[in-house]
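Notes from hallway chat w/ T.B., transcribed later so I don't forget. T.B. wanted the structure written out for a chain they're using in a teaching module, and asked if we could keep both sequence and structure tokens in one place. Agreed to drop them here.
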Amino acid sequence: MISLRPHQERAIEMLRDSLRKGNKRIMLAAPCSFGKTRVAAYMLAEAAKRGKRGVFICDRIKLVQQALDDFDSHGLAAGVIQGDHWRWNPKAMIQIASIQTLARRQHKLEFDFAVIDEAHVLYESQIEYFQSYNAVPFIGLSATPFSKGLGKHFQDLVVPSTTMELLDQGYLTPVKYYGGKHVDLKGLKRRSLSTGGSDYDPNDLGKRIEGDVHVRGDVIKNWQKHGENRQTIMFCPTIELSKSMVEQFNAAGIAAEHIDGYMPDEERQWLYDAHDAGEFKILSCSRLLNTGYDAPKVGCLIDLFKTSSLIQHIQRAGRIMRLSEGKDYAIYLDHAGNITDPKLGMPEYIVPETLDDGEKSFSESNQVKEKKESKAKTCPSCYQLFTGFRCACGYEIPPEKRVVGSGEILEEIKEKKKANREVSKQEKEQFLGELLFYARKRGFKMGWAQHQYRARFGVWGSKINPAEANSVSQDTKNWITHQNIKRARGNNG
């Protein structure tokens, strides 16, 4: 029996509802560390109970093995279709398959239900393969469903939970962001992306960084100052720059290693295991750790890889948000300018809203909800990046310097003098009732509402008779949002 968390149960309910409406191609958009593979295992196990054969489709060998390990942990007897894998078992009701192997084989695999991992990565050969199964339901899984034309291949987008909600519920680790020196991007070449749009050319970017000794030196100084000697991963635009940065960290007395996809499998696995065991501090790469890398102990990320892509940005940040014992927060050292880029911002505020249908000029940003809170500022006191008006260290932007956008006009936010008045008993009852209603809708424990009440009024609401509520007022929503932001920034004040 596979146990599910509330947000995973909600995903199952939403997918079933979409299937009942007649949709055959559904995209499940869920944050990194949501537990998408567990949701897939549950769906495939339920299908097998009803005599339906299911397949979990991966786009790379490493993800095939990760899925197999996960399915095995839940007691699912899965066969593997990937090269000459030793777990090949054509009679198994659940199959884990490499899309490359499926597309190459002459005989079509017979199945009744399919789940596609990392479904934002769809190549022409894969699309053609999926289209040959028009009557079979396909569920796509992705934390970043922003690829060009996905809406032409998927009929529905399901978003059961956001990164901020998972942070609030304690299923993800909050992140502290620090900005450092980064290179001048003026005149950098760009190149097309397979997912749509364009990005900075990594070779040109790598050369620019390689030639800037101040940036590279600042990377080491910032890690020594803010990295807290944590297990760290680093992203560089090129393999050459990654190797160069590793040499500089080692020269500074900080144990570091480089890893890439050209290494033998055994060597890569040794590096994964040694880093996880704490034998060296920094594991550096170009792209290898971007997806499918699962190491909860990693508590710091060094980002030297400037990007225009939401997909790349979110996937990288997701590597450090997994929970681990003793990891109260993670650290993101931004030497690329990605967090302060208004088109990107803090990943936890980015929520998918639509799939690109290919009908208009492609833009990833057109597919996300408005990110009012995502624009980051540097704290002049502790140098963390923060949103809103207050940093986790306690610094507040003076009222006279607070400006917000209103259309094309900037308006100064004046400090308002609030009249001190006692909140009535009726208002407290209404507030607690709305909190309880919100908790039920989101699948939170009822104790969450009491903690929110205590955070506002300084006492538990045990003596308050909550009012019946079937909606949440804007004031209560504002309070919840405010608390979410404080939690995500590590602010206990």
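Follow-up for T.B.: Residues 425-488 form one domain. Might be a good example for the class.
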